[in-house]
């Protein structure tokens, strides 16, 4: 009992220090482990891309589509409310339990639309949680399988997002996040394991081709919305589950070298 009381006092003191900005909460698994990117050192362009592909395809734990629900409840947990996840496009905080297919639920958005390369939801690109995000069911269906580009009309239920017939523009706060997920997918999925070689290109209306655009716009979004703590923490959380990392979150400067 005495020990519990002391621990409680330590916790209260810690909370007070944190509130005063004197103590930051320890991250679960901050930054890549030493040597993770050793194979990429000194490389540029296609050589860098190939090295990164090898690194992020090694030792991966491949989830099945059902596992993704639980994974997202961890990777996308609202830092301010452990009972909720944050929705990608709308930015809303919604109960983890409201996952499903009905209006008002959240579901599993494939940021790299799964029809682009027709990879479905079998274990592989369709269950790669680096690009799977909780989104409102209705907003997810409005985004559909559109490519990414600037412009359009406001999206109902997701302020700041725009869409037109052939493209979707996410709100400013997640433009870079979306870009870095796409950049990751192009490096991670290179035609192995029976799946198409996914590559971003510079057009919209890609249909079922294993491509998504527009890379020129995505690279601008990558610059305009730099990596923040929430995105870094998500990368760390994914590393704990799926055992690979998004190199463009750890090393934003590699985007121009690989895709420039
Ligand atoms: Ca458009
Ligand atoms: Ca962001
Ligand atoms: Ca590729």
From TrEMBL:
Residues 1-30 form the signal peptide. Pfam families: Endonuclease_1. Keywords: Hydrolase, Nuclease, Signal. The keyword NADP does not apply. Residues 144-168 are annotated as: Disordered. GO terms for molecular function: hydrolase activity; nuclease activity. InterPro entries: Endonuclease-I, His-Me_finger_sf, TAT_signal. PANTHER family: ENDONUCLEASE-1. This is Ribonuclease. It comes from Amycolatopsis albispora.
């Amino acid at each position: 009992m005495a020990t519990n009381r002391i621990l409680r006092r330590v916790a209260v003191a810690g909370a007070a220090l944190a509130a005063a900005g004197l103590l930051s909460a320890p991250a679960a698994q901050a930054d890549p482990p030493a040597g993770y990117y050793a194979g990429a050192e000194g490389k540029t362009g296609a050589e860098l891309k190939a090295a990164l592909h090898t690194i992020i395809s090694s030792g991966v734990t491949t989830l099945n589509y059902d596992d993704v629900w639980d994974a997202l409840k961890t990777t996308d947990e609202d830092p301010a409310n452990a009972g909720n996840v944050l929705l990608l496009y709308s930015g809303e905080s919604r109960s983890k339990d409201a996952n499903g297919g009905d209006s008002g639920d959240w579901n599993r958005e494939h940021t790299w639309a799964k029809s682009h390369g027709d990879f479905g939801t079998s274990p592989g690109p369709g269950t790669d949680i680096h690009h799977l995000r909780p989104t409102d069911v209705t907003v997810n269906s409005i985004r559909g399988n559109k490519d990414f580009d600037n412009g359009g009309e406001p999206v109902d239920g997701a302020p700041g997002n725009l869409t037109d017939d052939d493209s979707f523009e996410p709100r400013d706060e997640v433009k870079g996040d979306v870009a870095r997920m796409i950049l990751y997918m192009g490096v991670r999925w290179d035609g192995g394991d029976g799946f198409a070689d996914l590559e971003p290109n510079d057009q919209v209306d890609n249909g079922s081709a294993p491509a998504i655009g527009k890379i020129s716009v995505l690279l601008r979004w990558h610059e305009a919305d730099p990596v923040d703590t929430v995105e870094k923490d998500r990368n760390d959380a994914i590393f704990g589950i799926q055992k690979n990392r998004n190199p463009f979150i750890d090393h934003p400067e590699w985007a121009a070298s690989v895709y420039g």
